[in-house]
Design brief:
Blueprint: H1 3-10, H2 14-22, E1 29-30, E2 36-37, H3 42-54, H4 59-62, H5 80-129
Antiparallel strand pairs: 1-2
Amino acid sequence: MRIGELAEATGTTPRALRHYEQAGLITSERAANGYRLYGADSAVRVRNVRHLLDVGLTLDDVRVFLPCLDGDVTAGPVSEQALKVAADRLAVLEARIAAQVAVRDRLARALRDATDGARQGHARTRDRARPAA
């Protein structure tokens, strides 16, 4: 099948398929007119790649799963290397989340301080404008 047909069959884009091919995750042959031609088994492989990307792995991470991309990646036995890649990726994501939470907390604190400071400044201005009794 041609790249557009594979893209449609797998819910992806031709650009993504070219990217997967460049990363060595899928292969194609070239027709006489230069078009990429993919085998029917490529659809299973692309769906598996997309599944692994959807759970948070990167294309580099997915390479570890190459031996099982042509079958059901969710049903087969998991290798120690695959478990390590997944655990490492989870650690990276957790660190990023923690860093983002810290940034959010600093911004929220700065916003509170600025809001409180503006209220206090407004109150001082208002108090100066009142005549003393």
